[in-house]
Amino acid sequence: MDALYHVLISPFVDMATQPVFFAEVVIGGLMAGVMYALVALGFAVIFKASGVVNFAQGAMVLFAALTLVGFMEHGLPSWAAIPMTIVVMIALAYAIERVILRHLVNQPHIVLFMTTIGLAFVFEGLGELIWGSNVKALDIGIPDQPFFVGGMLLNQFEIFAAVTAAILVTLLVIFLQKTAIGRALRAVADDHQAAQSVGIPLQTIWVVVWSVAGFIALVAGVMWGAQSGVQFSLSLIAFKALPVLILGGFNSIPGAIVGGLIIGVGEKVAEIYWGPIIGGAIENWFAYVLAMVFLMFRPQGLFGEKIIERV
Amino acid sequence: MSEAYADAAVSAGAPQAPARVFTETLLSVDDISLSFGGVKAISNVSFDIKQGEIRAIIGPNGAGKTSMLNVINGFYHPQQGRITYRGKVRKKMRPNEAAKTGIARTFQNVALFKGMSTLDNIMTGRLLKMKRNFFWQALYWGPAKAEELQHREYVEHIIDFLEIQSIRRTPVGRLPYGLQKRVELARALAMEPHLLLLDEPMAGMNVEEKEDMSRFILDVNDEFGTTIALIEHDIGVVMDLSDRVVVLDYGRKLADGTPDEVSRDQKVIDAYLGVPHE
């Protein structure tokens, strides 16, 4: 009975009796969620256009952050280093299309997926080769002052991250949903042959999509790098993005955001209120368990397209 | 000649129609050879497709019919030979470039965008007709929207034409095979093609569906003036629909002519239709 009380009742009592602290936890969770969502967005864009999870997205985040820091270490101001990094990411997208994707037209999805695993290692290796493997601090002048709103401790950096994510998502949604390119992307993801036969230039679409994914990787890399330093473990945040995508639906841009927020808030709340009961560390596995539950009951995610197969 | 055509039509049970005469060449393939590694798919095949006609390509399985469509459509690049399209020798091109020049096609095993609705599938056929590029579309809401509506109107016209109003919103993955083939035809038509390539448009259909599809093909040819090249195994259908037939066997051209001429050709009878019983 006592155990049940601690699991089912006492956490909610705590929430109700200390609403300001609860709000702080939720907001902290939302901010963490925004950071996850930034990474998940890159996956969603590539998935939309190829039906494949880009395993290299995490490595791209790392590579983009490393490149930016590298340029800045060579004395470039951030207003010059950021556009230059964008150019590098676009050049990479072009190279990936030219060297890899062009030769894999009409191949099954699993082949493309394996390719992205290879790409992840190429990105990591390339990053280490060019910029070295030390942990680097990234400071592009994002304000990082804590302040109080109604008794809650907030952080300027987190607000900045949230606003950036909101702008990014709005742009992506307009780009992907409100223009004909969205339809073209879905067509390319469904069937290469058919897409080509209606005149969709696969090559152009891929360069555009990987460039967009590269840009998102840069934004995510800047945010994560500024928060916790640019280091090789950055490429591992890709694993945190997977449950986000399972929750939100792999091919949905809004899904990536909502999924990120749910997981961010979920794991923070679980850690704070239920963590002490089992000795903590809930944050590490909560997202994956949530994703598993979703896979059982709603495999297409919250916003994903339903998968229809005629048998 | 008209007598011969009528004869063939009667024998196939179709209403009597005068032979149509076409003069202008839309596309010609000259001395095309295509091989994959050591396997020759097509050897030295030449034929032409005239503006406005319905041209059938027939032959046993593995004769190189689909390979031929893939060559015309830009999926395959022949090792040898020349393609002349609308009066110009065509350089090596990709399928999306061929689409730009007005060549649309359907596939043997239905290549639709399965997760998308019938309407969205057909709308993809309009992508090339959309003038504003992607970035302008994102910026200019008004004009881009107006353009979308205008394309939508054309698509609705095709939907009416092919009698698929009731499945407009249905994801095509859910449709029965016969209707999927019809949606695929609709998507190709949405491109307003000069040349429409149909790869076994009636494969796997029952008699009623075949009759519908035959009627649509004739109507498309008649109303839109679209030139059609089709691959079909049902000889009755081929004899009814086509103005001229080219017969392939083991990658070589066996015969070329009106359905009647072809069906009387001894080589064709031997290789494809079977040896007649006396």
Model description:
The complex is a heterodimer of chains A (311) and B (278). Chain A is an all-alpha fold. Chain A has a single domain, classed as ABC transporter involved in vitamin B12 uptake, BtuC. Helices cover 74% and strands 3% of the residues of chain A. Chain A contains twelve helices and two strands, in the order αααααββααααααα. The radius of gyration of chain A is 21 Å and the shape is globular. Chain A starts with a helix and ends in a 14-residue tail after the last helix. With 278 residues, chain B is α/β, with parallel strands linked by helices. Chain B has two domains: 188 residues, Rossmann fold; 78 residues, no CATH class. In chain B, strands 6-7-8-3-9-10 form a six-stranded mixed beta sheet, with helices on both faces. In chain B, β7, α8 and β8 form a beta-alpha-beta unit. In chain B, α4 runs parallel beside α7. Chain B is globular, with a radius of gyration of 19 Å. Chain B starts with a helix and ends in a 5-residue tail after the last helix. Classes of the chains: A mainly alpha (311), B alpha/beta (278). At the A-B interface, α7 and α8 of A face α3, α4, α5 and α6 of B. Chain B: Keywords: ATP-binding, Nucleotide-binding, Transport. Chain B: InterPro entries: AAA+_ATPase, ABC_AA/LPS_Transport, ABC_transporter-like_ATP-bd, BCA_ABC_TP_C, P-loop_NTPase.
Kindly summarize this structure in a few lines:
The complex is a heterodimer of chains A (311) and B (278). Chain A has twelve helices and two strands; from the N terminus they run H-H-H-H-H-E-E-H-H-H-H-H-H-H.
Strand content of chain A: under 5%
Low-confidence stretches of chain B: 1-16
CATH-defined fold name of chain A: ABC transporter involved in vitamin B12 uptake, BtuC
Question: Which CATH class of chain A is shown?
Answer: Mainly Alpha
